[in-house]
Amino acid sequence: MRPHSLLLAIATLILCPLAAHADTTYTYTGNPFDSVAGLYTTSDSIQGSFTVASPFLLNSSNVFTPSSFSFTDGLQTLTSLDSTGDFSVDVDSTGDFIGWNISVGSPNDSISTFDTNFPTFDAFDGAVLDLGVNSGENSHAPGTWTVTNPVPEPSTLALLASGALGLLTPIRRRLSL
Questions:
Q1: 84 and 135: one domain?
Q2: Would you state the pLDDT for residue 12?
């Protein structure tokens, strides 16, 4: 095997797993609040997203830490850069969310949304700003989730193809001898 073919083969083997583990973004679209106080209106709602490494791996209690998140309730936006979050989800056999409990907050603000398939809990989609002075919620009507799986970039596909060709060339030459 020629030195440049060996280097190309090693580079391909090292880089291929990186392309296979791209991030996945989960985006939440809440319904408008049906109960408000203070600055919130019934046209406000919770919107947000979080990003995790693919595949989505949960521990035994379904708790995870996303690589980034951003949630807004119409008045405030909390992100992983300026706040903390508690994330827990229940998924079905296809990976769809059937229940979740997500709370993000900073020292003065918080946003929470949860829905669960357990009969003792109600579906809830709410936000609290300034600890009760301003609040909004939507009881019994949580929003929906969408999943965005990344599409490989053309340069990644080109690198993968060139690596495969680099691996096949020495094999073809050996077979033709």
A1: yes
A2: 55
